[in-house]
Amino acid sequence: MKPLVPQDCSINTATLGFKAPISIIIDDVASHGFGAIAPWRRELAGEEIRAVARHVRDAGLKVNGYCRSGPIPASSAEQREACHQENCKALREAAELEAQCFVIVAGGLPKGSRDIESARDQLADGLERLLREAEALGVPLAVEPLHPMYAADRCCINTLHHALDLCDAVDPDASRKIGVAIDAYHVWWDPMLRDGVARAGAGNRIMAFHICDWLVPTRDLLMDRGMMGDGVIRLHEMRQMVTEAGYRGVAEIEIFSDHWQTVDNTTTLQTCAERVSKI
Ligand code: ZN
């Protein structure tokens, strides 16, 4: 396997802490040699999306993923409909950006609920509906399983097999554009990981590969992800797994960290560029 170079990588803009406008971020990411960018909806609020898409193209970048869906489960039919409409709006933005996938962070328990089974039951229906919309727009969906510590408040799809089961439920013959985002941070601990990656590859379902590191100890459930190489995830082995499973897309660097988000963007981007060569 060839060493990873920045051109094979994407910067998820959350890594840079949303400190600068998207136009500056695009130029910074490109000037450090990265091949792609994964922007967030919050950065594009008030922007002319087609102009941003043009800027990304002109900078020589691709949008490998667009972040991200809001929750699918909700406590009433009206709220589910409102969530669906918001997700459809995000999908239209993803289409305008020519994003290679739209990331689904499916949602946890609806407010006031303790019924995780019902939340999970709502997902297949909601996802099937969203997939029809996504197909009409030509945007693949990437369901991202999140570490179980987020099951209550962010995403009740918590392992790779679990996400693949959901994909199979809405797309039994693996003919539609729905798959998974494999985020090292969320799945590295899973004893079924190797098997899950192979299954995802066999179904042509690996839409994205996200990297960062798991720090020991982890001080904060959300904002203490590590720079690649600073923690305990065997990223090289994981990259090998996804590559052997047929994934040919970029490795997306996605580090939610109150440390890296406050460091200046040049330092963060330089460090990312240097660290990926060791993966
Ligand atoms: Zn991720």
Q: Largest sheet, described in full?
A: 8 strands, parallel
Query: Helicity, in percent?
Result: 40-55%
Terminus-to-terminus distance: 10 Å
Beta-strand segment tally: 10
Oligomer: single chain
Q: Which cofactors or ions or other ligands sit in this model? A: zinc ion
- Tally of separate helices: 10
Low-confidence sequence ranges: none
SSE series: EHEHHEHEHEHEHHEEEHEH
Backbone shape: globular
Rg on CA atoms, Å? 18 Å
Biggest sheet strand order reads 3-2-1-10-7-6-5-4
Derived from helix and strand composition plus strand pairing, the structural class reads: alpha/beta
- Percent of residues in beta strands: 5-15%
| Mean of all residue-level pLDDT scores | 97
Characteristics:
279 residues; two-stranded antiparallel ribbon; alpha/beta; binds zinc ion; eight-stranded parallel β-sheet
3D architecture notes:
- The chain is α/β, with parallel strands linked by helices.
- It has helices at 22-31, 41-44, 49-58, 77-96, 116-137, 160-170, 184-187, 193-202, 235-244, 265-276, and strands at 9-12, 36-38, 62-63, 102-104, 141-143, 178-183, 206-211, 213-214, 225-226, 251-253.
- Helix 6 links the parallel strand 5 (141-143) and strand 6 (178-183).
- The longest helix has 22 residues, at 116-137.
- It is globular and about 45 Å long.
- The relative contact order is 0.15.
